[in-house]
Design a protein that fits this description.
disordered C terminus, protein-lysine N-methyltransferase activity, 14 helices, 3-stranded antiparallel β-sheet, SET_dom_sf, binds zinc ion, alpha+beta, SETD3_SETD6_MTase, globular
Length: 414
Amino acid sequence: MAHDAVGALLAWCAAQGVLLDDRIDVTKVRDKHEDESAWQAESGALAVCARQPIAFNDTIVVIPTSAVLSCKSSDLRHNAFFQEALQDASNDSLHLALCVLYEQLLGDASRFRDYLASFPDHIHSSLTWDKNSTECTWIQGTESARMLQRAAYYQATANPQGWCLARVAAYWDGVGSSILHAVFPGMMQCTWPKFLHAFMLVSSRAFIINVFHGLCMVPIADLFNHTDMHNVQVEAEELVCLKCGASRHKTCRVASAPVTVDIRCIEPVEKSEELINSYGDLSNAALLIKYGFVLDSKTVFEQYGYDIGYPEERAEIEHILAQCTIHFVPTDECVPSSWDSLRCLEPETMASTQRLAQEDSVYPPFCDGDLVLDFVPQAHGGRATWVLWRLCLAAALLEHEVAGIKQLHIWKRI
Ligand SMILES: [Zn+2]
């Protein structure tokens, strides 16, 4: 972002009616190693910090929804072909990316110009990693690599979850390119790399605010960095009028209070402290794939996951279980087909302690009285969860069916 782009963004926000509390500041992070503050952002990135102490529950930013960039607020909404494309709601982030590129191509004519100018030129995104890239080599055999595999797999099925480059390219070739080329005939910047960049902006910054706008780019709200232990929260009234986006009203002709996106402190904040949001309960693997960064510690959500709906992972589990040496002889008290019986096999004391510590991995941390000490914080990517442990147990109980399809219903149940 150019040096004066922060000033231009703030001036644009003020003109749009965005209210920023005097106690907060949007700033560019200097060299993290020389700066005493513990920034979540990278050096050179933008961050929001407190100029003055802020009390718990104080609202620090109020953004009218008229300032958000969505498929409902972009001028592209007037295009009949775009309206037709919007019928496919499973492509909402691709539709929004098309609006972002459309507004960028409008240049000075876009009412979002100074907001668009605040977006970064370069975005870390797993979308651009090909299988021979350094990044893909590094993540081989990790949960991140599995997430990319899943995205590619789901892209080829009717299941809309997961994104991969092929799906973004298919949208551009089949829908987006023809719409924008008709609007901007012969424009040199109307290209696939520009659309991909717009999509990466959307996938790293956009979120759903309400039933009218759906997924959108929210100025200022998208400047807050992420951590698990966040001190701010983004809030919006979700159930608004589907026709006009106004707050609940009887008919669209009756004016109602403006709808806003509010950012509120959920912890008291010290002077100079960074204000940090949470993008959701995500593992480091998901953060790397979706946002291109990882935290320097285990996240709350961290766990080793398998998606047994994904054939290659099912085969992987079958392979592991085929070598599994766990044997359990059912007794009268413990019937293997019973869920409760499976649960009774868990070391219950340890499981309770772990649950209290929000620890769901099988390898038990060392417990000394009330104190739970986890000696393997760096190895969490390779530990199994209780869910997977039950799965292994169930499959081991039904060893003769391990490689077959019959136990699939048990896996689903687990
Ligand atoms: Zn209405």
